[in-house]
Design a protein that fits this description.
This protein is mainly beta. Helices cover 6% and strands 43% of the residues. It has one helix spanning 19-29; strands at 59-61, 64-69, 78-83, 89-96, 102-111, 116-123, 128-135, 141-148, 155-163, 168-178.
């Protein structure tokens, strides 16, 4: 195929641009979408829930049963949380953070009918939620959240709940990474 001069918009500027060059110019001028941001190393340990039963590295709080389950979002296992008491039970993992830096949390979750998943980021220093979401989808669903860490916060608790008495929720592929800017 012969490269012929482009006779469109650039003709008024007396430039001759061949098609392959034009394509390179157009693509190099476009910004990368936010979804392709460069991410730092994984900060969650055993986020795929493949090691241990119940999955290792996840702490429990309140009346809850954790177990590895063979109904995963990917891999061979996932975390299953059964809420058995009146207080919200959860699995928790703490990560070190840098104030002012952005982080991305991604995970998959699935709820039993009439159950609620609660996904939360807890700021240990300032004693408050950085984000809290309630979800009820009954199929494996991807959750993604970007958070900017507030002043003074050097540690965030990633909290995964089965919210409400009798709730059963599955979690898998939990990831928390710094966004490199």
């Amino acid at each position: 195929m012969e490269n012929k001069p482009f006779k469109g918009v650039c003709q008024c500027m007396k430039l001759k641009i061949v098609w392959p060059s034009l394509v390179v110019i157009l693509f190099s001028a476009m910004e990368a979408p936010a979804d392709t941001a460069k991410l730092g190393p994984e900060m969650i340990l055993n986020g795929g829930m493949e090691a241990g039963n119940p999955p290792e590295k996840w702490k429990t709080v309140n009346d809850v049963t954790l177990s590895a389950d063979v109904n995963p979002g990917s891999g061979e296992h996932c975390l299953k949380i059964i809420q058995s008491g009146k207080k919200a039970g959860l699995a928790r993992q703490d990560v070190s953070t840098v104030p002012g830096k952005k982080y991305e949390l991604t995970l998959k979750y699935k709820c039993q009918p009439d159950s609620t998943a609660r996904i939360e980021g807890w700021d240990h220093k300032n004693g408050r939620n950085l984000f809290a979401e309630h979800k009820t989808e009954g199929v494996w669903t991807v959750y993604k959240y970007v958070v900017t860490i507030p002043s003074g916060c050097e540690s965030v608790g990633i909290l995964l709940y089965a919210f409400g008495s009798g709730s059963v929720v599955w979690y898998d592929d939990v990831s928390f990474k710094a966004i490199e800017e």
